[in-house]
Each structure stands twice: as structure tokens, then as C-alpha cells.
Amino acid sequence: MKKRILTPKKPHNASLQAYTKAVQRGRKGIHVVKNENGWAVKKIGNVQQAIFSTQKEAETHALRQKKNGNTVYVHGRDGRIKRVT
Question: What InterPro entries would the database entry show (predicted)?
């Protein structure tokens, strides 16, 4: 039986494309995601997360934590990426 190599489809969402490229380049990112207690700021590779009551507060905190090479990914309530900064 011949093996078939599956290649991932190219994402159509511009934010998702930016995220995919950043991951392929090995960049670490900071994600602002909806949490059961509010909005969480998660850094890739870290277990700890900061919790905020509003998305705006969480995004402001994430932008302050941003360093060279890091990208901030802001997710919506549905979990999809809304913005990449």
C-alpha cells in the first residue's frame, strides 16, 4: 500500500496565517483568551497565567509584557483569533 503524505491546508484567516508563520519561525507568543473567571493572558511555554475581568485590561497587560520577537494574539469569546499585534 502506498503512503500518502498529507499537507496542511493554507489558512484563509489573515490572523491565523500570521500565527502559523510565527510558530514556524519559533517565535513565542502571548495569548489573550476567554477564561471561566474572566480574560487570561497566557505566554506560550509558561504554565502560569494572569486573569483580568475585561478583555481590554488583559490586552493592555499583554502589550506591556511584549518583548522583541513576541507577538500578542487576541482571541474573541469564541476562541478565534481577532487581532495580531
Answer: DUF2188
CB 83 within 8 A of CB 74: yes
pLDDT in tens, 17-41: 766 676 666 667 899 999 889 999 9
Which CA distances in Å does 70 have to 2, 38, 67?
41, 23, 5
pTM of the model: 0.69
Instruction: Give 58's Cβ-side CA count (13 Å radius).
Output: 25
Compute and round to an integer the Cα radius of gyration of the chain: 15
Tell me the sheet residues that pair with 32: 41, 74
Exposure class string for 40-76: b at 16+ Cβ within 10 A, else e:
bbbbeeeeeebebeebebbbebbeeeeeeebbbbbbe
In the chain, where the domains are located: 30-84
